[in-house]
Amino acid sequence: MSGRCSFDPNFALAWARLSRADADIYFDQKDTTPGRRDAVKRALENAQKLQPNSPETLLALGYYQYRVLRDYGAAKATFGRVSKMLPANTEVAICPRRSCPNARDTGIKASPTSSKPSP
Predict the structure, then answer these.
(1) Cα–Cα separations (whole angstroms), residue 60 to 19, 113, 114, 115, 117
(2) Would you say 83 and 89 are in contact if contact means Cβ atoms under 8 Å apart?
(3) Which residues, 6 or more positions from 63, have their beta carbon under 8 angstroms from its beta carbon?
(4) Rounded Cα–Cα distance for residues 55 and 78 (Å)
(5) Closest residue by Cα to residue 48 from 37, 64, 32
(6) Mind listing the domains of the chain with CATH numbers?
(7) Rg (CA), the chain
(8) How confident is the model at residue 92 (pLDDT cuts 50, 70, 90)?
(9) pLDDT by residue (tens digit) across 46-91?
(10) CA dihedral of 56, 61, 64, 65, whole degrees rounded to 10
(11) How confident is the prediction for the chain on average, in pLDDT?
């Protein structure tokens, strides 16, 4: 992923996804060094400079808040904002639950989805 960012430094989606990938590594405690934490933040900042209000950038922000900063309230607000932008996106609804076994304690809930079949 970082190769895509160096190939095209204006590729906001790549920066956002790189930030999320690094946040996963940090959260899973595979690498909790200050360097990894800084890498998450740098990739997020690059995405924010390019497309600050894109759903992917905001999703990366939510992952940074949740998985790196452990600021569950801020993450809840960010994920809520993204869910309004992408109401049918199941990843937005489940990403906090997948990340933390204590998601119920943070007040983060999945968006309700219709179980009715399409006509």
Answers:
(1) 6, 23, 26, 29, 32
(2) yes
(3) 19, 20, 23, 24, 75, 95, 99
(4) 10
(5) 64
(6) 2-106 (1.25.40.10)
(7) 15
(8) confident
(9) 999 999 999 999 999 999 999 999 999 999 899 989 999 988 888 7
(10) -140
(11) 80
